[in-house]
Amino acid sequence: MHITALRNEPAVVSALADLIIETVACGGSVSFMHPLPREKALAFWEASLAAADRGERVVLGAYEDGELTGTVTLLLDCPDNQPHRAEIAKMMTRVKYRGQGIARALLTAAESIAAERGKTLLTLDTAEDEGAAGLYEKMNYRKAGVIPDFALKPHGGLTGTVLYYKRI
Question: In terms of residue numbers, what domain contains 49?
Fold first, then answer.
């Protein structure tokens, strides 16, 4: 597995769009509803990678034999009174690659980048139903609480969100 910071290139945007469409179709709560139109997925990743080009975030990709197998975003653009903090977002792994340590490797890489940039606190949220709480807890993120009925699930119905933090 190879992990790298992603650039705003057509092939990368296309692969990320495929990944988020698959994730949403499989019930992943990553801010979109099913079915996720390809144009909307492409626009999201183009904007996200443009923000990365401006230094506001880092979008990491995991590759296996040239195929994008997973991604995570490290949000760095926090308010002036929070220069010590970053946020983990959009953690996704292709379905056929789940359970192989890709998410763990991506999260570890994001944590390293955050530490290199002087961040001492990471925050994240995950869906209460079918989210990645188990992974985050295994990686020493502490549960801060649950907000009930926070968002719609991709196929309908409400789910809460679980808030986590980690000092690094």
Answer: 2-122
pLDDT digits (tens, 9 = 90+) for 58-99: 999 999 999 999 999 999 999 999 999 999 999 999 999 999
The verdict on residue 54 lying in a domain is yes
Spell 34-44 as b/e; 16+ CB within 10 A means b.
Answer: eebeeeebbeb
Listed in order, strand segments (DSSP E) in 6-104 are 57-64, 67-75, 85-93
Asked if residue 150 belongs to a domain, the reply is no
- Burial zone of 87 (CB within 10 Å; 0-12 exposed, 13-18 middle, 19+ buried): buried
Cβ contacts of residue 98 below 8 Å, gap of 6+?
Answer: none
Whether the CB-CB separation of 100 and 88 falls below 8 Å is answered with: no
Q: Are 139 and 126 in contact (CB under 8 A)?
A: no
- The whole-angstrom separation of Cα 53 and Cα 149 is 34
Separation of CA 152 from chain center: 18
Q: Does a structural domain hold residue 106?
A: yes
